[in-house]
Amino acid sequence: xxxxxxxxxxxxxxxxxxxxxxxxxxxxxxxxxxxxxxxxxxxxxxxxxxxxxxxxxxxxxxxxxxxxxxxxxxxxxxxxxxxxxxxxxxxxxxxxxxxxxxxxxxxxxxxxxxxxxxxxxxxxxxxxxxxxxxxxxxxxxxxxxxxxxxxxxxxxxxxxxxxxxxxxxxxxxxxxxxxxxxxxxxxxxxxxxxxxxxxxxxxxxxxxxxxxxxxxxxxxxxxxxxxxxxxxxxxxxxxxxxxxxxxxxxxxxxxxxxxxxxxxxxxxxxxxxxxxxxxxxxxxxxxxxxxxxxxxxxxxxxxxxxxxxxxxxxxxxxxxxxxxxxxxxxxxxxxxxxxxxxxxxxxxxxxxxxxxxxxxxxxxxxxxxxxxxxxxxxxxxxxxxxxxxxxxxxxxxxxxxxxxxxxxxxxxxxxxxxxxxxxxxxxxxxxxxxxxxxxxxxxxxxxxxxxxxxxxxxxxxxxxxxxxxxxxxxxxxxxxxxxxxxxxxxxxxxxxxxxxxxxxxxxxxxxxxxxxxxxxxxxxxxxxxxxxxxxxxxxxxxxxxxxxxxxxxxxxxxxxxxxxxxxxxxxxxxxxxxxxxxxxxxxxxxxxxxxxxxxxxxxxxxxxxxxxxxxxxxxxxxxxxxxxxxxxxxxxxxxxxxxxxxxxxxxxxxxxxxxxxxxxxxxxxxxxxxxxxxxxxxxxxxxxxxxxxxxxxxxxxxxxxxxxxxxxxxxxxxxxxxxxxxxxxxxxxxxxxxxxxxxxxxxxxxxxxxxxxxxxxxxxx
Length: 765
Hints:
Number of strands: 8
CATH superfamily of the largest domain: Cyclin-like
Helix content: 40-55%
Strand order of the largest sheet: 1-2
CATH topology of the largest domain: Cyclin A, domain 1
Radius of gyration: 31 Å
Largest sheet: 2 strands, antiparallel
Structural class: mainly alpha
Number of helices: 32
Number of domains: 5
């Protein structure tokens, strides 16, 4: 273990360009593992090569070591061979050893192994050379440690039984200790066993099952998604398919060249290379983090293939929409294409776990806002059916971040749509300068990154516009407010009075809005029909997602506090605020409004619930962040000519901002001068209060498959459903954690007992 880890660190220091992401690091670790398996003396092995459950790939000459490891860890054979070649060169340089073809070496270590593609170093891990070789690598690792960089050797500090080489004495008294370290190293398959071991269950092979599901870890998750990218996406053609080319050429003008040119420019902006930095480009990332050219080219290729694949699927789906008879508006929309490219690139980065470019870096590189990206996420998932569950969860996490706060930040394009759909909030949007700036054109990206794409002129042409989308609202925070106000006034002349222009936040209309409506300029009329603008459609869809997310969080929080009967009221107050006091959300987090709604309902209904208790329970929620209730924006103040944002805690925000704005909605929950406990009817509705909207029917948490051979899924059971399930007539059919059908033993035994009962009843039938 000690030797292998230092060998990996040595390889990493010699070829840093190969270790830009987690997937590459895993390939490096597996390459080191393969070298250890070949070189560990046979007498120290605690496993056998032939018949091992982890080395299952065979050839006529014996175990195919590389193929077996690739099968176990979902690695690419091509990448693994490259890593092993780099490892061999590092060993030759560090230890002054010559690599020999393993097929020419006669040693017990290589028995039962197909040696055709392997190299061998005599004396690499022999007992006599072990300590000196380890010392060499330790010194090399120490000398390569950069200031402010993590010391990766610390990963071994808890292994007290593996001493550092410099502490190993050469005399005979410590020979046993050295041998202990050597023997620990000599069992590399312990690593494999530990990574693949899962807790025993009734369906596992150890208990009579036939198939075992490997427990999902961050490593296995990364390698599973990397396998999907390698096998499904990388095998696709580099250019658009013939069907996609046909769709693009059938538009009012042939858009094929424009689409392919855009992909090259935008992906070069997302994956800046060292060559771009050398040409003097102003990289979106720090120049020190510019990607290695080979690595960046591979990622750009993967992202472009994924983009073309999803673009074709979306075009096919749009043509099936009865409201779409021409793809030109969609395929000529600059913002739509950039969002689709950015989403593809984000999934590639997420697959490789590229930590130096975490979200929202992909937005900064493309000139998009988070609200722009939120328009494409759902469609992306719907039209890429092979997308692994881990990547779907990643996109869901991004969408959640956007809905809860990112879309409400200053400079979000949400405000460019909101100012059209809700003219009543225009003054607040302009006063705080919340509007998004115009999206940079492709020429701007080329100039900023100093991009040189083959086939494009070195000097950007001014003829290329930002797009014909374009969400091309001319408003910008840098422009005088009177320009925006005049636009809003002009728009107001065509809108009903304020009382009539409040959007009714009900479920979306049955008609399916095409994507071109979502990405069209906010002031354009909706092509589906009616008097609504495209901004109305966009805001309606976005607000419906906000309400669904809020409903989930309100239910979870009320359930945790054990005030489930107030869930609907809290939800309705939140809903009315979103509809009629939308400005409360500007520059804020939706959880701040949820917490205030919950406390406000508790106060009005005279419940014994303090803000402290609400916050204590909120801290247990997965999405909780301290800044949500400790630092809430309430405006700016002028200090010596400089505008300084003012932030307060949630109680101050509740008293100073929330109550004045939300008081009418809270008071309407009860009739004037009455107590809820005196006036409640059988349904729990307070007489005289507005009719409450029904609480959304939310699904339980996503079920998890627990059997590889049967369609058996398990979903966490909510406390509110437990009592209903455990009725006298059905109690014997269910077992909850800590609650059995007889004296509690364990979940496994209780489930086995239930299965036997059900099987017995089936046999009787």
